[in-house]
Amino acid sequence: MKISNRTLYFSVFTLCLIIIFIRPLRDLFAYSWDPNNVAASHILLIPFIGAALIYWSRHAIFKSVSYAKVPGAIVMLIGMSSWIGASFVWKNDHFLINQLVLLTTSFVVLWIGGFIYFFGSAAFRAGMFPLLFLIFLIPIPPIALDPVVTFLQYRSADAAYALLNASGIPIHREGVVFTLPVISVEVARECSGIRSGISLVISGLLAGHLFLRAWWRRIAIIAIAVPVLIFKNSLRIATLSYLAVKIDPEVLRSKLHQEGGIPFFVLGLLILYPFLLVLVKWEERDADRSKNAGRSNDDNHPRDAGFSISQVPVSEKE
User: Fold this and answer.
1) Average pLDDT, stretch 280-289?
2) If we measure between CA atoms, which residue out of 12, 113, 118 comes closest to residue 65?
């Protein structure tokens, strides 16, 4: 069967899947569009980024395709179980979001299972990153999100307190509340930087995939993104607090406070870039060493002497 027909069948499968999940998908995008859901604003971009990654790697992904009915069916069964589980999800204050998490998980897993079914395991392995990247479509469940937000909130408060202390401003701290001259500042959960944190981690993940080959280096750039996030977030808190004390307390109610996250996010990317550059150079250097070592081994091999044993004339017996 030609790949064009295979692609057509998969496209029909995708369309049917979207129709079946039209309501959860509508709820998902409405949830991500809500400005109050700061940990979901990235969801709207994920399908476009995933599609671009698949397109750029299309030659490698679709180089070898075949039906993988059993593996694909198993993955789709896992997706179906998540769909069924959404009907029996535990009912608590986060009932709706927990249900949305399970339904979105079901959609993503079913789609990946369909991809494996129609294009095979080799195509899945070649396109593993862009396919699994769609996991970012799934909202972070509250049970996982709350501890992360708390961690970022307190670590950002720690770093901001150190920066304000270094600035020479008198400061007293109780938990996440700073008492400064004229004002008191609370590092609220909304100040955790979770939105830009997710974006920074995704940026590091994409950069690692595009520019690095070694898995440990890809993990390293993501790990580096965490302290960079805390630093840029604490710098924002300290800067706003400093301006509120030195210039005008109304700074904390201005657009600089409410909409000033983008410049600091860009700053985070600029801080992350040199680390990425070092890892890329390190990898290039290791590749050059391996290449030179291979050449050195070839130089010592008898075949490179310009002749083989069979070419040496043998004296005839007299």
Assistant:
1) 85
2) 118
Contact 140, 39 (CB under 8 A): yes
- Three-state DSSP class for residue 71: helix
Confidence at residue 310, expressed as pLDDT on a 0 to 100 scale: 38
CA–CA separation, 257 vs 251, rounded Å? Answer: 7
* Integer Cα distance of 265 and 286 in angstroms: 32
Amino acid at 200: L
Range ranked top by mean pLDDT from 129-133, 245-249, 280-284: 129-133
CB contact set of 202 (below 8 Å; sequence gap of 6+): 42, 136
Residue 226 token pair? 């965490």
Give which of 143, 230, 241, 157 is closest to 194, Cα–Cα: 230
Residue 34, classified by CB atoms within 10 Å of its CB into exposed (0-12), middle (13-18) or buried (19+), is: exposed
Mean of the pLDDT values across residues 61-80? 93
